Every structure is written in C-alpha cells, then in structure tokens.
Amino acid sequence: MRRCAEGLLVRGVTAAEAGRVREGLALIREAFDQTSVGLTLVSLEGEFFLVNRAFCELSGFSREELVGKSCCLVSRPEDVELDKASRKLVYSVTLSTDTADFAVGKYELPDAAKARIDELVTRVKADGQNVFFEIEGHTDSTGPKELNDKLGLQRAEAAMRYLRDQHQIPLFKISVISYGADKPVAPNKTKADRAQNRRIVINVLS
After folding, report:
1. Angle, vertex CA 33, rays to CA 28 and CA 34, nearest 5
2. Nearest Cα residue to 202 out of 103, 105, 123, 86
3. Which of 13, 43, 64, 66 is the right S-S partner for 17, CB 3.0 to 4.6 Å?
4. What are the Cα distances from residue 193, in Å, to 82, 101, 106, 109?
5. Which residues lie below 8 Å from residue 32, measured CB to CB, with a gap of 6+?
6. What's the CA gap between 206 and 198, in Å, rounded?
7. pLDDT tens digits, residue range 18-77?
C-alpha cells in the first residue's frame, strides 16, 4: 500500500504507477487552481476542503480563512443584511434561556431547543413555501471578541447541522452568521441579562 499526493492511499500498485497517480493529481490540482471559474470541494460535514484562487478572489476570503470552515461563511454580515432586506420574514424563533439556556462557552443544543426547531420545521413544511433559513449565533459580553465571534458561529452551526441531519434541509437553503456579543438584547450587567444574550435566532425567509 502506497501513499500518494493528497494523502490518497493506493493498494497493489507499483512505484511507477504510484508516480503516475501523483503526476495526475498534480495536474488536476494545477488546473483546479488556475481556472478562472471559482471552484470548491466541500466535505460531507459542509466544510471547505479545497478552494481555488478564483473562488478566493470572488468571495474576498483567503484560503486560510476558508479551508476547514463552514461553506456558509462566504456570506458576509453586510451581504446577509442585504439578502434579508430582499426577502420576506415568515417566522423567527429565538433559542435562549427558555429553551436553550446556553452555559458560558457552550454551544451544544439541548433537547428543548431541538424540540423547538422540530416544531418550526413542521410548521414550515405544512405551509409548503419555498423558504430559506438564516441562523444567527449570539453570545454575552464575557470574554474577548475573537472568542465570542467563534462561539456565536459554533452555536449557529449547531442549529445548521441539526436542520441538515434531522430534517434533511439542504445546506444551500441555510446561511449561518455570528454576531458574537455585538447585538445584545439585554445590557449584560446581570447573570439573567447575559443568559438572554446567549442565544440562537432562526429566521425563516421566503
């Protein structure tokens, strides 16, 4: 068994054959990167695996910013706001102290939050509309901005994965965005205030 380019494992081949595989992969990789059309490869988890130069130029993100991250990250905050303005808000659900009650630094969905999402999807499917899910992740003001932005994204992505895995909502109908601590609904002065700010907002747009 020989290991070739891109970590590919090939069984039962000679060194010469493995070399030809490496050469072929190198040519494919070069063509992938040099084409003027924006191209990406996305993993089963919805994360960028490969991105080419043209896609980076189109999206405004570098390879380092994209690889290993959710494919929904190509939506910048200003683009999300513009898209929202062009769509009609059908439903909006907030998962915070009553259903999610996220602890500081946590993003996993509790059962009560999952049940609330189940109710939302049932309602949407009953209406039969062609909709788009916009998921916002929010935090309290505890911790540095970089950490809060990451945690907000993790919360939004937790809801995205649940919609995909449990309800088969395709990823192209979902966007995620982290606002971190930038959009509080309470002043962050008390424990109860901060609990309200640790939340996920799911907007259903038509």
Report:
1. 100
2. 123
3. 13
4. 29, 12, 17, 20
5. 39, 50, 52
6. 26
7. 778 778 778 888 888 888 887 888 776 667 888 888 888 776 678 887 888 776 555 555
